Amino acid sequence: MEKLVALCKRRGFIFPGSELYGGLNGTWDLGPLGVAFANNVKKEWWKSVVQDREDVVGLDSAILHHPQVWEASGHVASFTDPLIECKVCHARFRADHKNNITLHEKTHQEKNIWTEVKSFNLMFKTFVGPIDDEKNKTYLRPETAQGIFINFKNVLETTRIKIPFGIAQIGKGFRNEITTGNFLFRVREFEMMELEFFVKPGTDKKWHDFWKQERLQWYLSLGIKKENIKLVDLPKEDIAHYSKGTTEVWYKWPFSSSSGKSDFGELEGIANRGDYDLTQHAKYIGKDISYFDQEGNERYVPYVIEPSVGVGRAILAFLIDAYYEEEKRVVLKLHPKLAPCKVAVFPLLGNKEELIVKAKEIYKILKELFGGAVMFDDRGNIGKRYLYQDEIGTPWCVTVDFETLKDNAVTVRDRDTTKQERIVISKVSSFLEKKLNS
Ligand code: GAP
């Protein structure tokens, strides 16, 4: 993990938040490569969950909601973690994070140092408007899901969609976690990719099973190794207040999970929220928000299946899975669709004008083809340029050499095998495009 965090900093993927001021715990900033990488992850999620389907539409709701939304949803009363405080130094910990507690007891060489366990609400409070009193208090959303539930009627009335259907949303969520850590794993501000899939009660198990497999396949199709990922059904005592049953996608993290029992831990949650949220909102606003099913000529409150994952947590899994230390190099074997840079173009030597001109011509064509995700590099020697591109996960490097001026062909080097192929310039675009989509 330390090596990965260092690489992310060194190459401009991820910087500690507010680093210039000594940092702000639980926040991270995405650098130039990090934002490109995160955009690719979000693009692939959106493609698989919305664009490739006929039964899911998108939404982008406000982050701030009416404060009653969070009362109705149960977050004011129940979105809490158990908190204990050390009576000696007043450090606060999550009571269920046994590893941290044991470590802290060791620093004081004493076990009997804890206060009673209290419930700590994780929502960040804020005020809407110029008066900061109770009446104007609301919260930064801890999940994007409620923005979807409060727009359920709007979407139904403005689209031709029928149950079963889903509404997907990508956006920031905020949680004032008691303890943060393990890089992007547990932070206080993070982006979420959430789908609320509305189904007829009674068909919920079938759709829950469908989305479990669908989401697992998504990770596998983007290169996560089979042995590092699995689906786990949570016991009743571990599920959220709104859930009728939750399955999690677990990833084999290189650190122990919060319980300290296993290195497998939560990457994504796939909950069956039942009719909890729509029923609660209907109760709070005093209006019916049920669904009329024309085919069955019946009215019901739909059940909801919800796959939900943090962009940062997904990024972390993709990075860990792709990180390799080989004899002479460190390489990120990212899936080409996720790689922030698809191709790097080099002139063999940085001081030969005719090579530079040719390389720039190819660079421009590829940049257009790959939506900008292409780099040009003429610094240092070719070996160092390869090492740099390996570290940032660029799948292919194209080199213009002296032969190119005679045979109009270039060398294409593959990141994973380091094998080089000679390709005629006119065929480079189609060659790389085919590889990207294979
Ligand atoms: N709407 C459902 C929901 O919010 P959750 O299990 O609390 O469910 C969903 O969160 C996902 O969001 C998690 O599986 C994880 O990927 C991510 N996530 C949750 N809390 C996080 C945190 N503090 N830091 C980073 N990611 C987090």
Describe the model.
The chain is an alpha+beta fold and 438 residues long. The protein contains 14 helices and 23 strands. It has helices spanning 2-10, 32-51, 67-72, 75-78, 98-108, 145-149, 152-158, 204-221, 276-285, 311-322, 353-369, 382-392, 404-407, 425-436, and strands at residues 14-16, 28-30, 56-59, 80-85, 92-94, 118-121, 125-127, 137-139, 165-174, 189-199, 229-233, 245-252, 264-274, 291-293, 298-300, 303-310, 323-325, 330-332, 343-347, 374-376, 396-400, 409-414, 420-424. The strands form 7 sheets. It has a 7-stranded mixed beta sheet with strand order 3-9-10-16-13-12-11. Strands 20-19-21-22-23 form a 5-stranded mixed beta sheet, sandwiched between helices. β14 and β15 form a beta hairpin. α2 (32-51) crosses α10. 34% of the residues are buried. The model has no long low-confidence stretch (mean pLDDT 96). The site of glycyl-adenosine-5'-phosphate has 18 residues, from β10, β13, β16 and α10. Glycyl-adenosine-5'-phosphate binds at residues 143, 145, 175, 177, 186-187, 190, 192, 194, 266, 268-269, 306, 308-310, 312-313.
